[in-house]
Amino acid sequence: MVDIRGGAGGTLGAAVAAKMAPDGYTWLLGAVHHSIAPSMYTNLSYDITKDFEPIAIIGSVPHVIVVNPNKLPKNDLKSIMEEIRKHPGKYNYASTGNGTSQHLTGELFKMQNKLFITHIPYRGTGPALQDLVGGSSGYDV
Asked: How would you list the strands of the sheet with 66-67, edge to edge?
């Protein structure tokens, strides 16, 4: 049985998994944001290094920028950044939640490129992409 608990950068699901019996049948499929979470959230109900045993790295996910062409009709990064600079505060970027690598990468991208865009945290990739495709979000980092 798969029990997906989205939200708070995976910490909600990790909290549930940490309380489960260590019987070998319950697994947590996590990502880099689980190592970031202790520095982002002060009241985690679990300790990622004590409550879990890493087994394997099963994948690598690059960060990409995607846009809704109806809201931001640009097809290269330079043009996208120029448009955002022309209209500071107009555009948003979605992430899969506060404290995730997508959120922190987005903030770093903003700082390095002196962009004023607003972070919109979502409870996972699905809702973020749904709003992006539907036109509710400016662009997604």
From this structure: 66-67, 139-140, 92-95, 118-121
- Cα–Cα distance, 102 to 33 (Å, whole number): 9
Tokens standing for residue 13: 């699901």
Cβ-based neighbours of 101, under 8 Å, separated by 6 or more: 31, 32, 33, 36, 63
Q: How many CB atoms lie within 10 A of CB 102?
A: 27
Total residues found in the chain within this entry: 141
Q: What are phi and psi of 43, to 5 degrees?
A: -120, 45
pTM of the model: 0.73
Angle at 21 between CA 34 and CA 2, to 5 degrees: 65
Q: What is the pLDDT of residues 112-135, one digit of tens each?
A: 999 999 999 988 888 888 988 888
Residue 73's CB: how many other CB atoms inside 10 A? 10
